[in-house]
Specification:
heterodimer, A: 437 residues, alpha/beta, Rossmann fold, 6-stranded mixed sheet, 4-stranded antiparallel sheet, 15 helices, 19% strand, globular, B: 323 residues, mainly alpha
C-alpha cells in the first residue's frame, strides 16, 4: 500500500461517527455569515440592513482574485452587518440574517441538462465554480477557481481528489464518499475538464473500506480515474504528502502543487463542484462532524453557514457536562474555540468536544534529544532545533533552518516524550519571520 | 459563560513520556542483569545495589539542594546510569570504588551540565573511565573461579581459570589458537568480564525489546557491530570473537544508543556507529588496553554536535544540489 515517504505518525483514529448518515440541519433563529470565509480578501457585501434574502442568493461578491463570493443559506431579512468573533477569536465582518422560519428554506435547484454540461467550456466551468463561492473544503479554504487557473507555461496532469481524512475523529469526508460517490466522481471529471488535466486519482486511507468500495464503483464508469487505497499515516491529507503518496512527486519548498503538475481538491470540494454545475446550487452548506468521547448524538451534519457552534452542538445532544475544550476542526490541526457563539464557515470540517482531563497539557520536561520529532517531521525539518532557536529569538537562524516549510501538522508536539510545546514555538518563529519582511 | 480551555494545536498527545522510554530501557536491561547475577553471584548484586543507590541518591540530593527543583529521580534515568555503570565494573571491585564511580557519573558527567538532556558524555561510561584511570588494578582484576571463556589455551592455561577476561588473555597471547574459544560460552555468559558484558545473548534479547518498542532505532547498534566486524576482519582478527567478547555488545546496544549523547538523524547515527566500531578495534589491536569500547563511545560523544551540524535531514522537496 502506498503512503508518503518522510516522517509521519500514527495517532489513534477514534472515528466514533464512522458509518453515520448525514443529518440535515435547517437554518433557524439568526445566521451570522462571515464575509471572510476563504484565504485572501474578504467578500464585499451586496445587501444592506432590511433587505430580504432568499436561499442561494449571493449576498457578498468576491473581493479580489484570491477571494470567493458568499451566498445566503436561508430565506430571511438582513438585520445588520457588524463585526463578530470567528472561531479563531478574531473580529471579522459578518452579515447577520434573521431567518424567516415560515418560508421555504430549500436552496432552489436550476439543473443543467447533460447536453448543456457537455457544451460548457473550461472557462465557463471555472466561472460557474467561482460564482458558486467554492473554496477548498478540506480546511485550507483556498478558492478553487484560483487552483484551476493554471498559470502560463504550466500544465495540470493530475486532479488529485483528497479523501485521506487522516485527522482523528473526523468522518465528514468518509460520509460524503459513502453516500455521494457518483457525485464526487462527476465533480472530479468537471475539475479535470476545467483544468485540462489528464488523470484523476482519488486517495483514501485504508480505514474507510466502505468509502473505497463506493468510490471504486462510481469510478468504474469513467476512464482514467484511479481510486487508491492508502496506508494510514498522519498527515496523509496534507496536499504535499498526498501528492508524494499518489504520484511520487515532491513539491519543492515555496512551490505549489501545480509546479509538479498536480491540483489537489478535497472530496467535499468535488461534491460542491458537482452541485454547482449539475444542479446550479451555490455553496451554502457543508457537511461537518460533531464528535467527542462524551457527545450524546455524535454524527455528521449538513449545516448552513452562519449557525453558531453552540446551536450545532445542540443538534448533537448538547454540550456534555464534562467539556474541557471545543475544537473547530480535528484534534491535530483544529482551533480551540473560546466562544461558542462563533459561527461555522466554509472551512469548519468538524466540531470536536473533549473532556476536561484530556484538555490539559502535561508539564514540560527537558529535551532528551531522542530525535523522535526529527523522525516524525513529514517536511524533513529539525523541530527540536527550531524550538530552541525560537526560544532564543533567533528568527534569522530559524528561517535558515526552513521554519517556513513547516506545515503545522503537529506531529512533533504529538510524539515528544517530554511534552514539549514544539509546534507552539515553531508557529511563533513563523509569525516573526513573516513580520520581518 | 463556558470556561473553555484554549490552546494551540495539536490537542492530543501520543501519551509517550520520558519515564516510559527510560523504563523500556530498564526492562531491556533485565536479561543482562539476570546473567550477571547468575554468573557472578552475590558480589554482583552488591555492586549493582551500591551503584543504583548512589546514583539515585546523588541525583536526588543535587536536584533538591542545589537546583531547588522537584525531584527528577522518578524519570528512571539515574536508575539506568546506575545499572549501566555496574554493568561496566568487575564483580570484585571494592564497593566504595563503585560508589565513587557513581558520584562521578551523576554529579560530574550529568548534573554539572544541567541534568538529563544536557550532558555531552555518557554518564555511566564517564564514571567507568574515571575508575579505570584512577584504580587500574581494581578495574582489571576479575573474580577468581569464573571461566575466562577460553576452554583450553596452550601456554596460557594459567590464565584460564584465574580471573582473566578473554580479551586480556588474547592481548597477552596474540598468537593463541582461537579454535579453543567456546562461542556458546560467550553467548550465555559463561566467561569472565564486567558484570553486564558477559552474556551476549541476554543483550541481544534486550536489543530486540528496544527495537520492538521503538525505544531505539537499528542504525546505531547495527552500524557499530557491522563496522567492528569489518575492521576486525581487515586487521586480521576474528570478527565473531571481537563482537562477542568484551563490552562491544553492551556498548553498541545500551551505551552508544543513549539518546542524549548520540546524533539526531539516521545518517549521523550511522557515521557515529561506524566510527565507534572502527576506533574500538583500533584500540583493541594497537592500543595498550585490551578493551576500547568505552573510549570509542566517549570520543564519538564529543563529535555529536559536529555530526548534528553536518548531517541534517533533507527538507521535503529540496534538491540535493540546492543546499
Amino acid at each position: 500500500m502506498k503512503t508518503f515517504r518522510i516522517g509521519g505518525i500514527h495517532p489513534a483514529p477514534d472515528k466514533i461517527t464512522a458509518g453515520k448518515l448525514i443529518v440535515a440541519v435547517a437554518p433557524s433563529g439568526q445566521l451570522r455569515i462571515l464575509l471572510s470565509q476563504s484565504i485572501g480578501a474578504p467578500a464585499k457585501p451586496v445587501v444592506k440592513a432590511g433587505d430580504t434574502v432568499l436561499p442561494g442568493m449571493m449576498i457578498a461578491e468576491a473581493g479580489g482574485f484570491v477571494s470567493a463570493p458568499v451566498h445566503s443559506p436561508c430565506a430571511g431579512t438582513v438585520a445588520k452587518i457588524e463585526k463578530i468573533r470567528n472561531t479563531k477569536g478574531l473580529w471579522q465582518e459578518a452579515i447577520i440574517i434573521n431567518v424567516d422560519e415560515q418560508a421555504d428554506q430549500n436552496v432552489p435547484e436550476r439543473p443543467r441538462t447533460p447536453e448543456e454540461i457537455e457544451a460548457l467550456t473550461a472557462d465557463r466551468l471555472i466561472g460557474i465554480i467561482s460564482d458558486a463561492g467554492i473554496v477548498g473544503l478540506g480546511g485550507a479554504t483556498f478558492p478553487t477557481r484560483v487552483k484551476l487557473s493554471v498559470p502560463e507555461g504550466k500544465k495540470a496532469e493530475y486532479i488529485i481528489i483528497n479523501g485521506a481524512e487522516c485527522e482523528p475523529y473526523l468522518t465528514c469526508d468518509d460520509a460524503i464518499m459513502r453516500i455521494h460517490a457518483t457525485e464526487i466522481i462527476r465533480g472530479a471529471e468537471l475539475l479535470k475538464r476545467a483544468s485540462g488535466a489528464e488523470h484523476i486519482i482519488v486517495g483514501i486511507e485504508a480505514n474507510k473500506p466502505e468509502a473505497i468500495d463506493a468510490m471504486r464503483q462510481a469510478a468504474a464508469q469513467y476512464a482514467g480515474v484511479d481510486v487508491v487505497k492508502l496506508k494510514m499515516k498522519y498527515p496523509q491529507g496534507s496536499e504535499k504528502q498526498l501528492i508524494d503518496s499518489l504520484t511520487g512527486r515532491r513539491v519543492p519548498p515555496g512551490k505549489l502543487p501545480i509546479d509538479v503538475g498536480c491540483i489537489v481538491d478535497n472530496v467535499a470540494t468535488a461534491f460542491a463542484v458537482y452541485e454547482a454545475v449539475y444542479l446550479g446550487k451555490p455553496l451554502t452548506h457543508r457537511v461537518l462532524t460533531v464528535t467527542g468521547p462524551e457527545v450524546a448524538d455524535a454524527g455528521n451534519f449538513l449545516v448552513p453557514f452562519g449557525l453558531s457552534l453552540a446551536s450545532i452542538i445542540d443538534r448533537a445532544g448538547g454540550l456534555p457536562d464534562d467539556t474541557g475544550k471545543v475544537i473547530a476542526g480535528g484534534p491535530m490541526m483544529g482551533q480551540a474555540v473560546a466562544d461558542l457563539d462563533a459561527p461555522n464557515a466554509k472551512g469548519t470540517s468538524g466540531i470536536l468536544i473533549i473532556p476536561a482531563k484530556m484538555s490539559e497539557r502535561k508539564p514540560t520536561g527537558p529535551c532528551i534529544r531522542c530525535a523522535k520529532c526529527v523522525d516524525a517531521c513529514c517536511m524533513g525539518l529539525e523541530p527540536y532545533l527550531l524550538m530552541t532557536l525560537a526560544q532564543n529569538a533567533l528568527w534569522e537562524e530559524a528561517k535558515k533552518h526552513s521554519a517556513m516549510s513547516c506545515l503545522e501538522c503537529g506531529s512533533c508536539s504529538f510524539i515528544c516524550p517530554a511534552d514539549r510545546p514544539i509546534l507552539d514555538f515553531i508557529k511563533l518563529a513563523k509569525s516573526r519571520i513573516k513580520a520581518m519582511k | 459563560m463556558n470556561n473553555l480551555t484554549v490552546s494551540l494545536s495539536p490537542h492530543i498527545h501520543s501519551r509517550n513520556s520520558i519515564t516510559r522510554e527510560m523504563w523500556n530501557v530498564i526492562i531491556a536491561l533485565i536479561p543482562a542483569l539476570a546473567v550477571a547475577i547468575w554468573t557472578f553471584g552475590l558480589p554482583a548484586l552488591a555492586v549493582i545495589a551500591v551503584c543504583l543507590a548512589t546514583c539515585v541518591l546523588c541525583e536526588w540530593l543535587i536536584v533538591r539542594f542545589l537546583f531547588h527543583r522537584p525531584s527528577t529521580i522518578a524519570d528512571g534515568s539515574a536508575i539506568i546510569t546506575g545499572l549501566l555503570l555496574a554493568f561496566n565494573l568487575p564483580a570484585s571491585i571494592p564497593l566504595w570504588m563503585a560508589a565513587v564511580g557513581s558520584v562521578v557519573a551523576i554529579a560530574i558527567a550529568k548534573m554539572s551540565f544541567g541534568g538529563l538532556g544536557r550532558n555531552i558524555w555518557n554518564p555511566a561510561l564517564t564514571g567507568r573511565v574515571f575508575l579505570l584511570i584512577s584504580f587500574p588494578a581494581a578495574m582489571t582484576t576479575w573474580p577468581e573461579g569464573v571461566a575466562s571463556g577460553v576452554a583450553h589455551i596452550s601456554g596460557a592455561s594459567a590464565h584460564a581459570n584465574s580471573g582473566a577476561t578473554l580479551l586480556t588473555t588474547l592481548n597477552a597471547h596474540p598468537g593463541m589458537d582461537l579454535d579453543s574459544v567456546n562461542i556458546l560460552n560467550l553467548l550465555t555468559g559463561n566467561m569472565n568480564g564486567s558484570l553486564g558484558e558477559v552474556g551476549s545473548l541476554a543483550i541481544i534479547i534486550g536489543l530486540i525489546y528496544l527495537l520492538a518498542t521503538k525505544t531505539i532505532k537499528w542504525q546505531i547498534p547495527v552500524s557499530i557491530l557491522a563496522s567492528a566486524a569489518f575492521f576486525s576482519f581487515i586487521f586480521g582478527g576474528n570478527p565473531l570473537l571481537d563482537l562477542l567478547a568484551g563490552g562491544l555488545m553492551l556498548g553498541a546496544v545500551f551505551m552508544a544508543t543513549d539518546y542524549v549523547t548520540s546524533p539526531m538523524t539516521a545518517k549521523g547515527q550511522i557515521i557515529y556507529g561506524i566510527l565507534i566500531g572502527m576506533i574500538t578495534i583500533i584500540i583493541r589491536r594497537f592500543g595498550s588496553y585490551p578493551e576500547g569500547v568505552s573510549f570509542a563511545i566517549l570520543l564519538m560523544n564529543s563529535f555529536v554536535p559536529l555530526i548534528n551540524r553536518y548531517c541534517r535531514p533533507r527538507v521535503f522537496g529540496e534538491r540535493r544540489a540546492a543546499k
